[in-house]
Design a protein that fits this description.
Organism: Caldithrix abyssi
Largest sheet: 5 strands, parallel
InterPro entries: GlpE_sulfurtransferase, Rhodanese-like_dom, Rhodanese-like_dom_sf
Number of domains: 2
Distance between the termini: 56 Å
Shape: globular
Number of strands: 5
CATH topology of the largest domain: Oxidized Rhodanese, domain 1
Helix content: 40-55%
CATH superfamily of the largest domain: Rhodanese-like domain
Structural class: alpha/beta
Protein name: Rhodanese-like domain-containing protein
Pfam families: Rhodanese
């Protein structure tokens, strides 16, 4: 019985941590709303000539590698993003769509941008997803 009580406590604590730190419904506690966008939606924005900025946060090798990159994207690796935010200042009033290979690094980069007042959106599935819809 004692083991069951501990198990319940652990599960409740884990669930609490998850719900307060995850952004499953687009909200993150203490931060700006976190948004995701699909590769299909990004493609539609490009085709509609919407005024967006595409930010690739992979390495230069990946940017020029086999997965390629989206035309007109700005390359700032996620490891350098914090120290290169000034380069994005001209785009502070625009929607910045952030992507990487699969969507993990872009998620972290999107959070950095949001913390610094940018209108950033994470493209889910990254270049892997983008290349599936081409």
């Amino acid at each position: 019985m004692k083991n069951i009580v501990w198990l319940v406590v652990v599960v409740l604590v884990a669930a609490g941590i998850y719900f307060f730190t995850a952004n499953g419904n687009g909200q993150q506690t203490g931060a700006a709303p976190f948004k995701n966008i699909s590769p299909q939606e990004v493609k539609a924005k490009i085709e509609n000539k919407e005024d967006i900025v595409l930010l690739d946060v992979r390495t230069p090798g990946e940017f020029n590698g086999p997965l390629g990159h989206i035309d007109n994207a700005i390359l700032i690796p996620v490891q350098e993003l914090g120290s290169r935010l000034k380069e994005l200042e001209p785009y502070k009033d625009k929607e910045i769509i952030v992507y990487c290979r699969s969507g993990n690094r872009s998620r972290a980069a999107t959070k950095i941008l949001l913390k610094n007042g940018f209108n950033a959106i994470n493209m889910t599935h990254g270049m892997k997803g983008w290349n599936q819809i081409k």
